[in-house]
Automatic annotation (TrEMBL):
Its cofactor is FMN; [4Fe-4S] cluster. Residues 341-386 form the NADH-ubiquinone oxidoreductase 51kDa subunit iron-sulphur binding domain. This is NADH-quinone oxidoreductase subunit F. It catalyses: a quinone + NADH + 5 H(+)(in) = a quinol + NAD(+) + 4 H(+)(out). Its EC number is 7.1.1.-.
Length: 445
């Protein structure tokens, strides 16, 4: 079943990602897509813009990566090795959406795959690529079926393959379903898996833009990032930057979402800088009888924030300044009657299981943290466990592991202890006994 949308719009000037969606939430085929300006940006760009001009538009738009890292897509493209002295390369779409609490890319993949295809072709044109790969989470079976259908429609119409849209540009796209590994969300691990290797991250440099898949320049972008490209190419970077309406320095709109114990979990396209409070209101608020305790702003690898943070702009810098990360921009809300220790244990179990095992702090540190959390959850913790968890989180933080997997796992752990230390203390054995001990009757000893 597709994700619920809080609201819809048919205005492409304000909702570039979702205005083509059908009311019945079905597949938007090629004919319907083209009736709503589909592939117009591609044809116009191939006719009127050079690759460098398209990249300049992307820089002006300030489209920051929607997969969670928030790096400027335009800057990333400008660093790709291009020109006659470099081989033509690849565009890899990261559709391995496995971040806990995240389901935004699924909407785009299932309902408007032609938007992704157009974005990938434009990315290929800008980056001197001749082939694209959609690296899809294998569980997204309906998305795979619809992507294949859209690719076939595009090839038949001359939009993919040799002489794209009767131009001198050649580009084709192929679907690749992954084997179900969260680590493939890291761009170099994705490339290794695409090549048929074990999905371990690679050492950088060289960066994929210089030497990626099969040694060729490779640009890896998230689904939502690429789906924004056609609108930027068609209407310009200044227009896209203005969509945030002054709420944020980050350009454009964002597919935000809410999950957890709210009345209407789902997705909505809103300007960058929309607040968490606005999203919670769109979701109908907390379920009856429940109060908000804490929330994650963008998936399981972001830090816990409090109700007092609901008025913060949901953009990369503002949320980063509050001690968390925007991540994927999908809020996971936690009710007052839920255990933060149990939630954190569940997350750390996931991250420990999904570690590729390449570096010691991640391979050994995450299972160790998970074991301690299991003990605290069951009231079997020992003195020093909380301090040990803090030390483990520090030792797997940024710059201390091979990739960002372990630092991502550390953030919810660190912030959970910071904001809810008393819940962790309640899981320590002797403190639990003291809290429930009954007075000893006089004369009984």
């Amino acid at each position: 079943m597709s994700s619920h949308l809080f609201s819809t719009s048919t205005n492409g000037e304000t909702h570039p990602l979702t205005y083509r969606l059908r009311e019945d939430r079905g597949y938007v085929d090629l004919d319907e897509f083209e009736q709503k300006d589909g592939y117009e940006a591609l044809r116009t760009t191939l006719r009127e813009l050079s690759p460098d001009e398209l990249i300049d538009n992307m820089k002006t738009a300030n489209l920051r990566g929607r997969g969670g890292a928030g790096f400027s897509a335009g800057v990333k493209w400008s660093l790709t090795a291009r020109g006659d002295d470099h081989p033509r390369g690849y565009i890899a779409c990261n559709a391995d959406e496995m971040e806990p609490g995240t389901f935004k890319d699924r909407l785009l993949l299932e309902e408007t795959p032609h938007l992704l295809i157009e974005g990938m072709i434009l990315a290929g044109y800008a980056n001197n690529a001749y082939r694209g790969y959609i690296f899809l989470r294998s569980e997204y079976v309906l998305a795979a079926q619809r992507i294949e259908r859209a690719l076939a429609e595009a090839r038949k119409a001359g939009i993919l393959g040799s002489r794209v849209c009767d131009s001198d540009f050649d580009f084709d796209i192929f679907l690749h379903t992954g084997a179900g590994r969260y680590i493939c969300g890291e761009e170099t691990a994705l490339i290794n898996s695409l090549e048929g290797r074990r999905a371990n991250p690679r050492s950088k440099p060289p960066f994929p833009g210089q030497s990626g898949a099969w040694g060729r320049p490779t640009v890896v972008n998230n689904v939502e990032t690429l789906c924004n490209v056609p609108a930027i190419a068609l209407r310009g970077g200044d227009w896209y930057q203005s969509l945030s309406g002054g709420r944020s320095d980050d350009g454009g709109t964002k597919l935000y979402g809410v999950s957890g114990r709210v009345k209407r979990p789902g997705l909505v396209e809103m300007p960058m800088g929309t607040t968490a409070g606005e999203l919670l209101e769109l979701a109908g608020g907390m379920r009856d009888g429940l109060e908000l305790k804490t929330w994650l702003p963008g998936g399981g690898s972001t830090g816990f924030l409090l109700p007092e943070h609901l008025d913060l702009a949901l953009d990369f810098d503002t949320i980063g300044g509050a001690g968390s990360r925007l991540g994927t921009g999908l809020l996971a809300v936690v009710a007052h009657n839920q255990s933060v220790v149990s939630l954190t244990r569940n997350l750390e179990d996931f991250f420990a299981r999904e570690s590729c095992g390449w570096c010691t702090p991640c391979r050994d540190g995450l299972p160790w943290a998970a074991r301690i959390l299991h003990a605290l959850e069951n009231g079997e913790g020992e003195e020093g466990d909380i301090e040990l968890l803090e030390s483990l989180a520090s030792n797997i933080g940024p710059g201390k592991t091979f990739c960002a997997h372990a630092p991502g796992a550390a953030m919810p752990l660190e912030t959970a202890i910071k904001h809810f230390r008393h819940e962790f203390e309640a899981g320590i054995r002797h403190r639990q006994r003291e809290a429930h001990a009954e007075p000893i009757p006089v004369g009984s000893v």
